[in-house]
Design brief:
The protein has helices at 17-27, 38-58, 71-81, 95-98, 117-125, 148-158, 229-244, 246-250, 253-261, 290-299, 319-323, 328-332, 345-369, and strands at 5-6, 65-68, 86-90, 105-107, 130-134, 161-165, 184-188, 199-203, 268-269, 280-284, 302-303, 334-338. With 370 residues, it is α/β, with parallel strands linked by helices. The strands form three sheets. Strands 2-8-7-6-5-3-4 form a seven-stranded mixed sheet, with helices on both faces. Strands 9-10-12 form a three-stranded antiparallel sheet. The protein has a two-stranded parallel ribbon with strand order 1-11. It binds 4'-deoxy-4'-aminopyridoxal-5'-phosphate.
Length: 370
């Protein structure tokens, strides 16, 4: 078997060594950040230092950061707060948005996977008045960057608030919550090389604090539950490194272009005409099934996904590709390569070699059965 190659950063990024160290360090002491004694004070300091670092990632004052268990919680917190109001969500949102607002109306996207602004305006013009709109900053499957500033400008006209799942944007593009006009923004630590099970809800300027869990009054009563001091501390370290490495990430478009230029003839690359983050490529190979390819690639030591990994580990047809109007054939042969802080050209070369070997094998089998 060839060397292991990990190209599934959008599912979860490998933890950065500095983060693992920060987490291990924080775990060595009994830190309850609410305790008065020295261990409590140390825990509080770790949490507040991390808050400042995570705040910097989206340019928000630290007091507007609420730590939680991840973006699924953050998204549920916001959407459930507005459940009595009319909600619009883009058709390509993550299931943690779509499932948290089952009665929401969907905003269609273009064939390139970009939210359709004129369809959004039509929905906003209709009665009853919309309370909340949820549009992600970067799509996890295609990497397409959504026109959030245009969305927020439109929402201002109609008095609706904006929730933005920025999980796949952090560390990939600069984010300024105020400049983008976002009221509620959600982040997840494990997508930027931090630990799993920790994230943040960041509040914009609307003055509303949606709350899901009540109890011990942590996070200034916005999110009860003993703070995950070690996880938060690791998240802070990951945020600091993500900011530092943003220019390096953005240069990965060269690797993505290299990859896409060497894919088999007839491959369809999704969202290739839209603004995209540098290290994500979603493509459909001619006459192949994602399921077969993913398993064959895994046997070659290559970890990628079909773009819509779901919790059970089964392979589902992508609702994102469906919303983009892709054919069933394209949707069932889609593969996603996603890169991050430790990706090198050799990983892309290794992937391409393994893919070529597998595609040749498929061709040979087909020829034998012809
Ligand atoms: N939103 C997006 C766009 C995601 O990619 C993910 C992770 N797959 C989530 C939300 C959920 O994040 P978490 O794992 O922190 O719950």
């Amino acid at each position: 078997m060839s060397k292991h190659i990990y190209l599934d950063y959008n599912a979860t990024a490998p933890i950065r060594p500095e983060v693992a160290e920060a987490v291990a360090h924080a775990m060595k002491q009994p830190h309850n950040a609410s305790s008065v004694h020295r261990y409590g004070q140390e825990g509080r300091k770790l949490v507040e230092d991390a808050r400042t670092k995570v705040a910097t990632l989206v340019n928000v004052p630290p007091a507007q950061v609420i730590f939680n268990s991840g973006a699924t919680e953050g998204n549920n917190t916001v959407l459930q707060h507005f459940k009595e109001e009319r909600i619009l969500v883009s058709a390509i949102e993550h299931p943690s948005v779509l499932e948290a607002a089952p009665n929401a109306e969907q905003i269609p996207v273009t064939k390139d996977g970009i939210v359709d602004l004129s369809a959004l305006e039509k929905l906003l013009q209709a009665e009853p008045k919309t309370g909340l709109v949820s549009v992600m900053l970067v799509n996890n499957e295609t990497g397409a960057t959504q026109p959030i500033r245009d969305v927020s400008n439109l929402l201002k006209k109609y008095g609706a608030l904006l929730h933005c799942d920025a999980v796949q944007a952090a560390g990939k593009i600069p984010i300024d919550i105020t400049e983008l006009g976002i009221d509620f923004l959600t982040l997840s630590s494990h997508k930027i090389g931090g630990p799993q099970g920790v994230g943040a809800l960041m509040l914009g300027l609307c003055g509303i604090t949606p709350t899901l869990l009540s109890g011990g009054g942590q996070e200034k009563t916005a999110r009860a539950g003993t703070e995950n001091v070690a996880g938060i501390s690791g998240f802070g370290m990951a945020a600091e490194l993500a900011i530092k490495d943003l220019p390096a990430y953005q240069k990965m478009d060269a690797l993505r272009d290299l990859l896409e230029s060497k894919l088999p003839k007839g491959t369809v690359i999704h969202s290739s005409d839209s603004p995209r983050v540098a290290g994500t490529s979603l493509f459909s190979l001619p006459d192949a099934s994602s399921e077969t390819l993913l398993m064959a690639l895994d046997l070659e030591g290559i970890a990628i996904s079909n773009g819509s990994a779901c919790s059970s580990g089964t392979i589902k047809t992508s609702h994102v590709l469906q919303a983009m109007g892709a054919s069933d054939k394209e949707a069932s042969s889609a593969l996603r390569v996603s890169m991050g802080w430790d990706t090198k050209e050799a990983d892309i070369d290794g992937f391409l070699k393994a893919l070529e070997k597998i595609m040749n094998r498929i061709e040979e089998k087909k020829a034998a059965h012809a």
